């Protein structure tokens, strides 16, 4: 775990030295809790939030994370309304993907990204590399993550019961 997080710190330091915006590629098993390293250690989404946010702040909201892991959107669940965006976006699968799909999709992604310098085209190439009619790879942007944070806040703190409790505390404080 420490080695993985240190690598993110090295990426941030390298960016600050050379000014080249990184593209972070993470290939691991993923679930609602985070990603599983080859050492079987779990890196929680909360563990990733800080280091990714530091890199993203430095590169002015231009950090793209290519995540070859299931449930990569779990990162959005640990962001608070007052947090800065940890990434410009995450590209990855929304379903379980197989080794050959990962290999073929990422090969197509990088070839297309390098040749066209267009993220949309690269994502289309990823999906075109898997079986016809299937598009398991999506882009989840900072705007979507912010929307998830707001929806979560509203569902938890803006219910009639939650509003009544807050109103009661305010009235009681007067």
Q: How is this structure best described in words?
A:
The model has no long low-confidence stretch (mean pLDDT about 90). About 50% of the residues lie in helices and about 15% in strands. The chain is an alpha/beta fold and about 170 residues long. The strands form two sheets. A four-stranded mixed beta sheet has the order 1-5-6-7. Strands 2-3-4 form a three-stranded antiparallel beta sheet.
Q: Which terms summarize this structure?
A:
174 residues; alpha/beta; four-stranded mixed β-sheet; three-stranded antiparallel β-sheet; 7 strands
Brief write-up:
The protein is an alpha/beta fold and 174 residues long. It is 51% helix and 17% strand.
N-to-C SSE series?
HEEEEHEEHHEHH
The major sheet is characterized as: 4 strands, mixed
State which percent range the strand residues make up.
Answer: 15-25%
Shape: globular
SS elements, strand count: 7
Strand order of the largest sheet: 1-5-6-7
Mean pLDDT: 89
- Count of runs of 4 or more consecutive helical residues: 6
The rounded distance between the terminal residues' Cα atoms is: 48 Å
User: What radius of gyration results from the CA coordinates?
Assistant: 19 Å
Poorly predicted runs = none
Structural class: alpha/beta
Task: Bin the helical content.
Answer: 40-55%
